[in-house]
Structure formats: structure tokens, C-alpha cells
Amino acid sequence: MTRTGLSTRLLGLGAATLALAACDAIGxxxxxxxxxxxxxDTSDAVRNAVTAAPQPDARGVVTYPDYQVAIARRGDTVGxxxxxxxxxxxxxxxxxxxxxxxxxxxxxxxxxPATLGAxxxxxxxxxxxxxxxxxxxxxxxxxxxxxxxxxxxQPTRHQVAPGETAFSIARLYDVPVASLAEWNGLGTDLALRxxxxxxxxxxxxxxxxxxxxxxxxxxxxxxSTTPTPPSxxxxxxxxxxxxxxxxxxxxTDLSSEQxxxxxxxxxxxxxxxxxxxxxxxxxxxxxGIAAAVGTPVAAADDGTVAAITRxxxxxxxxxxxxxxxxxTVYAGVQNITVEKGDxxxxxxxxxxxxxxxxxxxxxxxxxxxxxxxxxxxxx
Length: 379
Known about the structure:
Blueprint: H1 3-25, H2 43-47, E1 61-63, E2 68-71, H3 78-85, H4 89-95, E3 109-112, H5 132-139, E4 157-159, H6 166-173, H7 177-184, E5 197-199, E6 275-277, E7 287-290, E8 296-298, E9 303-310, E10 316-322, E11 326-331, E12 333-334, E13 343-344, E14 349-353, E15 360-367, E16 370-372, H8 375-378
Antiparallel strand pairs: 1-2, 2-3, 4-5, 6-7, 7-15, 8-14, 9-10, 9-13, 10-11, 11-15, 12-14, 15-16
């Protein structure tokens, strides 16, 4: 048994012991777990089960349709992995935000920034270039402040943002933290580093979970008819209470902060509307702009279509590359009018706002891999 597995088992045993002690303290402990409404139920554990961790090939590489990762062996560093794969150690270290000579834990995930050639080719095509498909895929993951469950078989690749922990990431994707640790070779302290890539465990296929119901043991007094209270013979009085006014603040309209001469700004607004969600690093990597269904979405600046992909709900995501290593990401769209590799000009229609409730455009600006607040670019 691994150290992580042992720690998880001990934690589970301790939690069970505390639960039994609490039941005993109030005199309601049911030794055979047949206490009717309080009966023992493992259905939640079944629904939260994940598949087994992926196994690497002979090179220590796991290949998925959209990306690859290397699994560290005992005694590995980024430098030794790069040497084994015949790739640039500098690029590999930079992509994973870790020095080349730092000792890695066995099983730790090292993300490859581009596609590795077939075994024996010793090539890594496009090393050091932007992985725009991954950027596009993660763009919508945090647009709503929560990640959609992944049952596609390809794990979501998550880059750790400042302030995130293994527990917060596990909650974000609704997976057990123990599975997150096992899949990524985390230490017993579950420590993470900013910029580190993690594979999010894939939920196991779910079948209909049926919970067996056992009739409770009758106790004295059960089964007798309760007399109808006299007050039940007359209807309750009609209440005309006026509901209290809502104390929820209205969304901040940040669109008024734009300058009138939008042509002089670094980027133009992709749609006109209220900004209903502000940028917050690590929570919402872009802004949400309210717009009616079918509103044309315009290119924020001249550029090239770098990627067109879809999130786990098959909603399109569009990424444009601009001068100066700048990327813009457009999510919550439909009817895309461009294709990958097309040149676009500032203000050109590239898509329409998707039919959703509410309908809005999720818009991101990225300087290389890092998301930044779009507002200064739009002013």
C-alpha cells in the first residue's frame, strides 16, 4: 500500500470512529445500520467514484487527444525527463514553472508544451509555442466559477493559480482530494506550486444507483392514528404580507468606464453591453458582457484565428492571436463565421452570442499564458 493510500485509509477510519462516537453519545447508535431514515447509505461514494489513474508508455509519457504529460520516475528531475525525451530542458522547465534540477516525486505530472513525436523520433514539435487549445479549454472552466464534470475520458489539465490548494481544486471539479493526489503524485502535505499542471481525475461512468430501503423496527406508539386538531377544520387566514425589498446589489455597470473613442484603445469591445461579471484572477479569468442572443461578436483587434474548440458541454470557444503575443478568448458563442488560420480585422464579425439563460459573452485577454484584466485594454 502506498503512503498516500495508507494516509487516506487512516483518515477515513478516524472519521468513521468520530461518527460512531457521536451517535453513541446521543444514545441513537444503530449497530446494524437499519434505522430507517438514518440508514447507512454508500450511494454518494458510488456517484463520486473516479477511474483508475492513467498508465504511461515505455518513455513515461501518457498521450491524450489534445495533449501529453510525462510521469516522473524515482530520482527524476525536469532535466532528466527532457534528456530521456530528447527535448529542450529550458522549455520544459519554463512550461511547468519549476527549475530543471529540482527533484520530482515519483508519479508527479510534467506537462509537455507540444506534441511529442512517435517513440524513438526524439522530437517535440513546436516546443515553446502557445498551447492555445489548452488555453481555450480552460477559458470556460472558470467562466462560471465552477468546472463542469468531465466524463469524456480525457482528463482536464488544470494549471494551479495563486492561492489555490489541492482541496479547493478538488471541490472545484467535485472529485476526491485523495484521487487528485494519487493521479498527480502529490506529497502527503498536498503542497502545490503556482503554475503547476494537474490532471483532474475522470469520473467513472455512472449507472442508476438504487438504495435498498429497510423498514424501520416498530417501537411502542407507532402506527396509531393522530387525532385531527380542531384548528384544522377551518382554513388558514390569508396573508397579504409584502415581501421585503431585495438587498442584493445590482451588477456593476463597468461599460461606462470605456472611453468614447474606442478606436484609440488597444482592444475594442467585442459586444456592447453591461459587464455583469468582473475579472478576478483564479476565479473568473475574463469578464462577462451581457448581450442579447444572436448579437454579433466582433474581433477585438487584427489577428489570426489560433484555435476553435469546445468545452465539455460542446459550447464553442474561439481564440484569436494578436500582435505582441496577445491572445483574446471568446466563449458563450455560436454560429462562428471564421476558421482556424483565418486572418481577421478589428471589428470583423466572428460569431454570435449563444442562446443561454442569461445570455452573455465571456471575454478573456491573455499575455502569453497569463490571463489579465481586459478592462485596461478596452479603455
